[in-house]
Design goal:
With about 180 residues, the protein is an alpha/beta fold. Helices cover about 35% and strands about 25% of the residues. The protein has 6 helices and 8 strands; from the N terminus they run E-E-E-H-E-H-E-H-E-H-E-H-E-H. It has a 5-stranded parallel beta sheet, sandwiched between helices. Helix 3 packs parallel to helix 4. The longest helix is centred in the last third of the chain and has 15 residues.
Amino acid sequence: MLAFTEVHVYPGTPFAARMEEADDRLSIPTLWPEFWLMTLQPERSAEGLRILVVDDNPDAANTLAKLLKALGHGVNVAYRGPAALEESREHHFDLIISDLLMPGMNGRELAAELREEASDRPLTIVALTGLARPQDQGTRQLFDRILLKPVRFDVLESLLSEVATRRGTGGPLRD
């Protein structure tokens, strides 16, 4: 017989844990195994990246921000393009991760404005999209990477590592 219980990793983030009655071992769910491995790792040093997450869906933005913070990075969140522009004027970010489809100022318009305002410094901008087909050439030129939602943890971790490595050289992230 199995017993299910609800536990909270972060406030408001429930997950199911399964207890086996035979030997009382905790069986960790396999739905998102990378998350469990990540939570067991110590936080990274103060040399984490400064990241801005932009998404009109607060749940998506906050979830990604929590994950990035758990990995030891400094994270700000904006829910609209104009708010993201204000954040980028106040802070220097190593990485900006933006949703493409947002009301008002969409991700492409935001990226164009960010590139124009930061023409004197390197800036890495990554688009997140739920669209299955790659964007047009103009969109691809505005972003260093375009990632499909939901982003796989290994892809995100690889991106963060590459941005951290290139941060010291000032080189572009472009392919």
